[in-house]
Amino acid sequence: MFHLILYAPGRWPRLLTLLLPLLLSLLGARTGLAQQRPRTTSVPTDVRPAPRVLNPPKPNAPVRTDTVGLVSGSPDSLNVAAGGRKGAVETTVKYKAKDSIRFEVQNKKAILYDKANVDYGDMNIQSARITVDYNTNVVTAEGRKDSTGKLVDRPVFKDGGSTYQANRIDYNTKSKRGRITDVVTNMGEGYIHAETIKKNDRNELFGVRGRYTTCNLEDPHFYINASKMKVIPGEKVVTGPFNLVIGDIPTPLGFLFGYFPTPKTNQRASGLIIPTFGQAADRGFFLRNGGYYWAANDHIGVRLTGDIYSGNADVFGGWRGTAEVQYITRYRYSGLLSFNYSSQPTTQILSSTDVNTNPQYNVPRSSKNFALAWNHTPVARPNGGRFSANVNVSSSNYYRQNSYNQRLYLQPAFSSTISYSKQIRNSPINYALQLSQTQNTQSGTMNFTLPDVTVGVARQYLYDLVGLEPQGKFYEQLAVAYTFVGQNRISNSIPQTLLNSGAIPVLGGSRETAVLPVKLDNLAKLLRNSQTGVQHQFQITLGNYTLLKHFNLNPSISYNEVWYFKSLDYSYNSTARAVRIDTVAGFNRLNSYSGGLNLSTNFYGTINRKGTRKIQALRHKVTPSLSWQYSPDNRASNRAFAITELGDLRDPATGRVFLNDPSLKGQSYQSAQLLPRYNGFLFGVPSTTKVSAINFSLQNSVEMKVRNNEDTTGTTPFNKVSLIDGLDFNIGYNFADSVFNLSPLGIVFRTQVARKLNLLVNSNLEFYQQDSTRRLINKFLWQQDKKKLARLASASLTMSYQFNPSTGDRKSAIKRPVAPANDPSLGSPTRLDPYEDYVDFEIPWDLSTNLTATYANQGPLPARFNRPRNSPYTAVSLNLNGSVKLTETLRFGFSTNYDFVNKNPAFTSLDIFKDLHCWQINGNWRPFGPTRGYFVTIAAKSALLQDLKLSRNRTFLNY
């Protein structure tokens, strides 16, 4: 049973009066229209003559064969005959028209004119003219021609989530089948144009003389032309033989069949990854980044890709394989695990075509390389453990031979960390377990910390521990905190063996650092080179006290203890006239303690101006701080040093017999030295030198209050503007130092101008004289003939300026749209070839500058013919980054660096981007440096046809 809702502005009363009684009498009580109960009152018979039938049915008219099943079921498709069968219409039909609706009762048709609209369940048809045939259940929609002969108000057919625009539509509401001519429909990111499309009840489309494109124009810039195609919405488009047409010009590019996945926007799908074809100057033709993507489920995606190179003649160019697994569970964790392996020749197999007579070739260190990366990021949860991982392990030459990313190419070191941490609920105790690794790709050194255990106890107040009630006493501020750190470190680097900077010879020692290859054969040597240690840190808080109402006094005490399980033992060999070093196993306990006081305050200087001036007030804040630190001298009694007699061994610098170490005053040794028992160990040697130092710091900041002319509500009448973020001075004096008591004066100045220019200045001033070799002399500068207070020892200047003229904001604050995703949400690959980031054409131009300069005093020696004097400016470099919009679709970007000391550009990169509506051109050129090369790519913008591209490159890998 369905309801018939009619709309015909201007003609509704007349049509209702004439046609409604006739329709009810014709269709009967069970036609599929709403049943009408008989009224109890008598209604006079309509004496008006019946309307003339304009188009009577012809019983002998020929019947055209139905090839798509539009006419299905019994001839009485509306179930109007007697017998009480259920009607074919299963839901409410709603239709309307702007001009009129004409009913042909005997033919069982309704014709809607001008802006016609029919709704039937999930189906909707809009057109200039719609004909509803109740006899065959067929809805026909057609456009109309305007005065110029152009077809307007073309039919638009919506069925579920699919939309079709065509010249003519025939649709059977019962069988769900239809025929659409001259159709254009959208499938995901693609568009399908076809001369005729047949649609079955499973919503599958069969097209004749079709075109598939991702261009949204009526006359697309390019398309894939096929005589036959089948479309499964939300899954794929399959075609017969096809060829590519660009700008209405057919090309010979094509294949015997076509397969184009069209997954829904919120759905991932498994499928092949088409490789990129090209040529490398050093390894021949290649197929790169081809393979298969497997969408295992909603949480896991697997990508298997690889490269293969043709090489030259009988020499194979090598291959590379990549396996990536990306996983995600909402509100819990996400991660990416990838493994790369490459095999390539270690010699140049193709001659260079470069005009340079001495072309450079990046010779591989080994034929086989690998890289392993794992990133696991958890979502923080209250009172829950947190497991995270950031692993990056590779052969020393992998990225230099396989990555086009200049950052990875130039990066000398990588680090990895796997950790688990947890705060015990309702307890001040927290713990963390960590495994870490570092490697240097230049030197080949690797360090493993397996494991690193940390246990911490938060600050605990003593009165609370003993169960006392707070009464405001001074001892209630006493608190203690504790941290336990245990580490075991394995390294393949065997350090050099030097004593007293090489002045004391070592038996079997070496002045060079050795590197052991990390492999199973060297496992015993690596374990012998391992170090194990435990550190205990106690932080004791004595409270915070106020003196004279304005000064804050903070006393503090710290106690540290280190445990080692082996130590170094020294013995002098008079025959070899050298010191022998032995490693002795055993438990060793070292401790150290220190104390201090800190006195600080704040005071302000303020200038207020009356009236409605632009600048209303100035404020100067000054924070002076005076601190004292003390630690005892226990070198002679502490087991951190071994007392070693050197006999008649002479100092090579002076030619004299070694004198006793100054810390051995009053002890009966002839030429004894204190040698470190834990040199190069995990936590180093605890401080055992006496320190009694006073440090003074003075911090300044200046800000002003400016009237806000844009405030009309009175809520923010003034704005605070910082003139000087910081002007800090720091100096110290160590009473226990026997040589240089006064430390250099450090000055730091930082400010921001107009929220665009950032300025930072660091400098150090020395007070002691120096000799011709730049070594300090224990005499002040004011004690020399040419008196002066201090000398500039070092300084640095950093200025950065970032702005955008269209917004007035910093580049970092500009909201940039996110680039359209080119890959599913899971399994996004690490691309080998660089692509231009998303370009925002709304910004006319932007610029970012950074200037860095460092100064170092070079001493008093003047320059000579055989002794050139170095410039005091050790580094002066300017970095520029920016882009400019040349036209509405063309943008140019650049990044460059110039070293004014060496007078050469360290790194320069030029980028160009051209938007061609459904295509784009990306270009990148690096003319200088180790990462020089260029990339040019012309590609379709859609992710569905991301492999439809033409690339040309010449990089630092294949020059």
Short description:
The chain is mainly beta and 959 residues long.
Characterize the structure shown.
This protein is mainly beta and 959 residues long. Helix content is 4%, strand content 50%. The chain has 5 helices and 55 strands. The protein has a 30-stranded antiparallel sheet that branches. A 6-stranded antiparallel β-barrel has the order 5-6-11-12-10-9. The chain has a two-stranded antiparallel sheet with strand order 7-8. It is elongated.
Fold topology:
Layout: E1 4-5, H1 12-27, E2 93-96, E3 100-104, E4 109-120, E5 123-133, E6 138-142, E7 144-145, E8 151-152, E9 156-159, E10 162-165, E11 168-172, E12 178-187, E13 190-199, E14 205-213, E15 222-232, E16 236-239, E17 242-246, E18 249-255, E19 258-261, E20 271-273, E21 276-280, E22 284-295, E23 300-309, E24 319-329, E25 333-343, E26 368-378, E27 386-394, H2 398-402, H3 406-410, E28 413-423, E29 429-440, E30 446-461, H4 462-465, E31 479-491, E32 493-494, E33 514-515, H5 523-528, E34 531-541, E35 545-547, E36 551-573, E37 578-600, E38 603-608, E39 615-631, E40 641-645, E41 672-676, E42 691-707, E43 718-734, E44 745-753, E45 757-766, E46 768-770, E47 776-780, E48 791-803, E49 845-856, E50 873-885, E51 890-899, E52 904-916, E53 919-926, E54 933-940, E55 949-954
Parallel strand pairs: 1-2
Antiparallel strand pairs: 2-4, 3-4, 4-5, 5-6, 5-9, 6-11, 7-8, 9-10, 10-12, 11-12, 12-13, 13-14, 14-15, 15-16, 15-17, 16-19, 17-18, 20-22, 21-22, 22-23, 23-24, 24-25, 25-26, 26-27, 27-28, 28-29, 29-30, 30-31, 31-34, 32-33, 34-36, 35-36, 36-37, 37-39, 38-39, 39-42, 40-41, 42-43, 43-44, 44-45, ...
